[in-house]
Amino acid sequence: MTSARRLDNAPWLKTGPAARVLKLLNTDGEEARVVGGAVRNALLDLPIGDVDIATTALPEEVARRAKAAGIKCVPTGIEHGTVTLVVDAKPFEVTTLREDTETFGRKAKVAFGRDWVRDAERRDFTVNGLSVDPEGNVHDYVGGLDDIAARRVRFIGEPEKRIAEDYLRILRFFRIHAAYGAGEPDSAGYLACIGGRAGLIGLSAERIRLEILKLMVADGAAGSVTAMVEGGLSLPIFGGVAYTGPFAALIGIEQALGLSPDPIRRLGALAVAVTEDARRVASRLRLTNAETKALDSMGHRWWRLGGMDEARARRRLYRLGEERYRDRLLLAWARSGARSEDTSWRELASLPARWTAPKFPLRAADFLARGIAQGPELGQVLALAEDAWLAAEFPLDQAALDTIADQAVARLTSKP
User: Fold this and answer.
1) Sequential DSSP letters for 191-225
2) Rounded to whole angstroms, how far apart are CA atoms 182 and 201?
3) Are 174 and 213 in a shared domain?
4) For the residues 396-406, what does the mean pLDDT come to?
5) Which residues have C-beta within 8 Å of that of residue 302, sequence separation ≥ 6?
6) 366 Cβ contact partners less than 8 Å away, ≥ 6 residues apart
7) 287: buried, middle or exposed (CB in 10 Å: 19+, 13-18, 0-12)?
8) Tell me, what DSSP letter sits at residue 107?
9) Residue (of 65, 74, 81, 70) closest to 26 by Cα position
């Protein structure tokens, strides 16, 4: 299959850091093109992220030319043909054309070559198998242009074979479909993913985490996740039940409130009903400490946030902080079955924008002056006073604060 389109909305091919790299490598009998996601996104009029470049030049030649041009070259994966050139603080992965000589998972042996067709055929999906030269000519050897037009994500070649090469491609299939596909997933690819799902168990948690968190925030996440669950793919990943209804509901709520998609919040809606779920998911995906704490907080008695009056909601907001309050509240809302237009839930969700919790005004010195010594009792009396202050709806006048402090001391000292 030959080129069938020119890319006219890619000024970065003509000027700027990417153009400089292409010019450097397109001389003296060598050729370089932009490949993969940048080409796909440009064709779909979507923002361009990383710009990856493939070349006929061997890694040593790429490094030699970069040095001669005063461009920083980092041998990030030179044994696999990849070096990173840094131009104007922007990194570009440059990889020599390759073809598989033996395939056994991610450890496949590759040989460097000069055949653009063979290089395209070893990529994962047709929409990622396109390349574009400096003149803007799109080269398509795998049917990627037709699939981009149809918003269809298909494996290159036999899906079962491509999945066996790297089982992470199962997750990438659903993630790429969620981000760039439309309608139902490609049936051949979908069935192959189901057939190969046992291979997910052997993947590292870190690789799974990256794909899952990207999937969580993709535009079509609800449909792709539902397809995964229906295909029996969620259990090997999360080790428990997946709740597609609350997941879809949370996405609708975020959109209704104008909130940016949050991967951990969405993960909580999908896989967390209680704190034990949060800890299991965090362990299986090797979440960071911050991500684990956020997920654990969401799962902690979220059901108590439904039907709160304003006073109780303020106490929850004070205790949890704005971010934890919002995440736990949205989980409760998503699991309640209420619509995203529900007035009472919207009122609760808008509380952080309408009210800022004051700081607890009593300090240790207030209780030292009342005869409480340094030590455990000081912490206990402060906790008693803070609870009473919350119950009294955050008074700040001195008379009320004195009464709360005196009563807290009396409660503490009256204990046997």
Assistant:
1) HHHHHTGGGGGGS-HHHHHHHHHHHHTSTTHHHHH
2) 28
3) yes
4) 97
5) 328, 329, 331, 332, 335
6) 401, 405
7) buried
8) T
9) 65
- On the CB side of 312, CA atoms within 13 Å amount to 7
Q: Specify the CATH number for the domain of residue 106.
A: 3.30.460.10
Written as one letter, the residue type at 69 is A
DSSP 113-175: -S-HHHHHHTSSBGGGS-EE-TT-EEE-SSSHHHHHHHT---BSS-HHHHHHH-THHHHHHHH
- Other CB atoms closer than 10 Å to residue 3's CB: what's the count? 15
Q: Which residues pair with 77 in a beta bridge?
A: 82
- Are residues 179 and 223 located together in one domain of the fold? yes
pTM given for the model: 0.89
Write down how long the chain is: 416
> pLDDT for 5-64, tens place per residue?
889 889 999 999 999 999 999 999 999 999 999 999 999 999 998 999 999 999 999 999
Q: CA 145, CA 141: separation in Å to the nearest integer?
A: 9
> Do 221 and 180 touch, CB atoms closer than 8 A?
no
Domain that holds residue 308: 239-357
172 and 141 in one domain?
no
Dihedral pair phi/psi, residue 41, rounded to 5°? -65, -35
Answer for the pair 202, 168: CB distance below 8 angstroms, yes or no. no
